[in-house]
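Incident log, support desk, overnight shift.

02:14 A customer reports that sequence design results differ from what the structure should imply. Their input is reproduced verbatim below. On-call engineer (initials T.W.) acknowledged and began investigating.
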């Protein structure tokens, strides 16, 4: 774990050597800075999920509508590539922060001196408070992302028949049929369902935690904010699960 954390700390170490950035990096390496960055990256990823879900819900509108949406996305060319790199960087940062948080919490329980020393160093943004089930669901979400990329980005889903999505040159040109092929495959549908339940659990805690970190915490608001986080988390997860139900129901 220590070796992994040292590797993850390399970007922070590099940035700290750039004139003018060292104070910023040090601030972000404190417990407060770590929590703030966790909240920002987490909410950014939630924003992506909302947009992604809105696009995918067009599956219900039919093949022509969804393929037109997919074609519009692909027409963005380099801009889409930049957005994907930014998304990956945000996700990687969120994972790095989560690993550091878990490690630093473990060290903090062993020694208050170790916690004090860590706050002064360039660890990957120490301290935090993520519980063990947040780490478990986070790992499931990461696994889901890898499978999702294999299934729909690379069209290499294990056991998935992409024939209906291919043209005469064996190129995937029909996004609607590709998504349907993946989501209607029983094994893939089951994996997606489990991972989306993990997503709902993760977000139901993560949204409230992020809002609290950013200062939205008051005894008169807390119940409403917890409710908002719960509804939003399961609205996102439920929205994606509805696509699995649709695909299984429409399987010919």
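02:41 Re-run completed on a clean worker. Output:
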């Amino acid at each position: 774990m220590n070796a992994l954390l040292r590797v993850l700390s390399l970007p922070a170490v590099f940035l700290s050597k750039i004139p003018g950035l060292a104070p910023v990096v040090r601030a972000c390496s404190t417990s407060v800075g770590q929590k703030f960055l966790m909240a920002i990256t987490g909410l950014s990823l939630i924003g992506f999920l909302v947009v992604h879900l809105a696009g995918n819900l067009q599956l219900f509108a039919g093949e022509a509508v969804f393929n037109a949406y997919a074609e519009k996305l692909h027409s963005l060319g380099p801009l889409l590539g930049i957005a994907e790199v930014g998304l990956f960087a945000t996700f990687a940062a969120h994972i790095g922060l989560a690993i550091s948080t878990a490690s630093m919490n473990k060290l903090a329980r062993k020694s208050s001196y170790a916690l004090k020393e860590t706050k002064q160093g360039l660890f990957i943004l120490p301290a935090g408070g993520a519980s063990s089930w947040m780490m478990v669901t986070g790992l499931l979400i990461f696994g889901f992302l890898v499978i999702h990329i294999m299934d729909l980005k690379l069209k290499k889903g294990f056991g998935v028949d992409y024939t209906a999505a291919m043209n005469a040159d064996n190129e995937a040109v029909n996004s609607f049929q590709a998504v349907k092929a993946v989501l209607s495959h029983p094994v893939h549908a089951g994996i997606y369902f489990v991972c989306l339940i993990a997503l709902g659990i993760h977000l139901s805690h993560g949204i409230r935690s992020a809002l609290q970190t950013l200062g939205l915490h008051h005894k008169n608001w807390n119940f409403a904010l917890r409710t908002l986080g719960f509804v939003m988390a399961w609205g996102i997860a439920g929205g994606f699960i509805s696509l699995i139900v649709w695909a299984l129901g429409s399987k010919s």
